[in-house]
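Incident log, support desk, overnight shift.

02:14 A customer reports that sequence design results differ from what the structure should imply. Their input is reproduced verbatim below. On-call engineer (initials T.W.) acknowledged and began investigating.
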């Protein structure tokens, strides 16, 4: 019978290809790790590692590495399913979303979720769209929230609500690039924000791999422009803060400005920037859940989706 602990320890060693690092990662001695690997080799009557420097896997080792991942995933899914059946008193849920989206959405979701399911242990993984998709594929998270589309196979999606991406344009940029025509340009942008008017203006963008950046690049391509990019960063709040200070133009989800009442503040205090809806279909997207279609969807995950959808929809109104 296969010992799951032997498999877990072997898999860590197979990924690290270094007994010292693997043992340290597992918080066990090198000798203990070697014993677990030896037990597997005796059980299957094969050699799993070439004892070279650096350590390498044999053909049998590579085959077992693939199977070990599958077996350990199946074990985890079995335990989660059985925990659900047992009165649903315990469980874990790992959620992935962007740093900023988490800041806006989680305060609206988690209090209600914990009130209903107080014994579910929650884990939050933050990252960009590409990182979260990979985490979902590899089973590191159970559920992700992001804008459609999710560019990966074997991911099921469930729409939550509509999302709109707006342009944040500071007056300082219009004053510099359209001297004497600022008000005329503002009127033109408010009627139909044609981004080609801004082809010479500096932009502040989040890094590639984020869905908002993908949308921005598609809009630039459709408009056949290559505006100067003043700054690229992983944090969309940074681009927004710099746009507010007049450094450049940026793209910003409408959902993020509803709670902060930024529109009201702009009107009342004349902060020197404005939001403009874009006349491109790509800026009107869908926020959605994503989950791996081949994995067991726990009751904890299903209930999170129900509660999250109710509360996200109320936030986005």
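02:41 Re-run completed on a clean worker. Output:
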């Amino acid at each position: 019978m296969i010992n799951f602990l032997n498999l877990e320890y072997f898999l860590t060693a197979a990924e690290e290809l270094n007994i010292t690092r693997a043992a340290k990662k597992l918080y066990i001695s090198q000798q203990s790790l070697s014993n677990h690997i030896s037990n597997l080799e005796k059980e299957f009557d094969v050699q799993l590692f070439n004892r070279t420097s650096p350590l390498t896997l044999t053909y049998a080792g590579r085959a077992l590495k693939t199977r070990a991942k599958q077996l350990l995933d199946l074990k985890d899914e079995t335990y989660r399913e059985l925990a659900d059946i047992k009165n649903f008193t315990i469980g874990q849920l790992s959620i992935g979303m962007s740093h900023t989206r988490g800041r806006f959405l989680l305060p609206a979701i988690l209090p209600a979720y914990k009130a209903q399911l107080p014994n579910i242990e929650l884990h939050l993984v933050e990252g960009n769209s590409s990182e979260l998709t990979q985490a979902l594929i590899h089973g590191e998270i159970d559920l992700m929230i992001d804008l459609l589309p999710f560019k990966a196979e074997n991911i099921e999606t469930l729409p939550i609500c509509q999302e709109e991406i707006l342009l944040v344009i500071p007056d300082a940029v219009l004053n510099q690039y359209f001297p004497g025509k600022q008000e005329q340009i503002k009127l033109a942008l408010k009627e139909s924000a044609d981004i080609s008017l801004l082809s010479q203006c500096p932009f502040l963008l989040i890094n590639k791999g984020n869905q908002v950046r993908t949308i921005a690049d598609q809009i630039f391509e459709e408009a056949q422009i290559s505006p100067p990019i003043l700054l690229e960063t992983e944090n969309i709040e940074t681009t927004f803060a710099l746009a507010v200070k007049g450094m450049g133009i940026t793209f910003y989800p409408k959902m993020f400005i509803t709670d902060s009442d930024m529109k009201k503040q702009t009107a009342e205090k004349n902060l020197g920037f404005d939001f403009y809806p874009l006349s491109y279909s790509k800026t009107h997207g869908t926020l959605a859940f994503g989950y791996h279609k081949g994995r067991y969807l726990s009751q904890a995950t299903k209930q999170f989706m129900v509660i999250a959808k109710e509360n996200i929809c109320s936030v986005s109104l």
